[in-house]
Amino acid sequence: MTVLINDTGFLTTDPTRWIDPEARIDLASDTDPARLRCLLIGKELVRVAFPSFSDGRGFTLARLIRQQGYKGWLRAQGHVIADQYAMARRSGFDDVEIDDDLATRQPEGQWLARANWQAHDYQSRLRGIAA
């Protein structure tokens, strides 16, 4: 089983359950960015895999996907830890999907502690932009 997490904590239902399976795609962290535009045509849900919490390529993919104008649902899936939640949201993910074991090790409170991801945005402060 898996657990979905957004700014309100652990979700009891999948907000994307209505999306047709044909309109979904799973991307590996090593997906070639040059292929993104073709891969995303007609897709309403994109899940980007995180094979390890130390593999940050998924954050880069999310940012590139959003920069190309993708407006659909973007989900980080796999080994994302609570400390990375703010980065996931800032890079464009709508939510995070983790397995039950990780959810047990990092309970909802740890994720909620990072749910105010728009606050304390170092890069915006560095550029002089209000967060």
Distance between the termini: 36 Å
**Sheet with the most strands, sense and barrel status:** 6 strands, mixed
Average per-residue pLDDT, rounded, comes to: 91
Number of strands: 6
Largest sheet: spatial strand order: 2-1-6-5-4-3
Number of helices: 6
Taken in chain order, the helices and strands follow as EEEHEHEHEHHH
Helical fraction equals: 25-40%
- The 3D shape can be described as globular
State which percent range the strand residues make up. 15-25%
The stretches of 5 or more residues where confidence is low (pLDDT under 50) are none
Structural class call reads alpha/beta
| Estimated radius of gyration | 15 Å
Give an account of the 3D structure.
- It is a single chain.
- The chain has 6 helices and 6 strands.
- The protein has helices spanning 36-39, 57-67, 85-91, 100-105, 108-112, 122-127; strands at 2-6, 9-10, 24-27, 45-50, 73-78, 95-99.
- Strands 2-1-6-5-4-3 form a 6-stranded mixed beta sheet.
- Strand 5 (73-78), helix 3 (85-91) and strand 6 form a beta-alpha-beta unit.
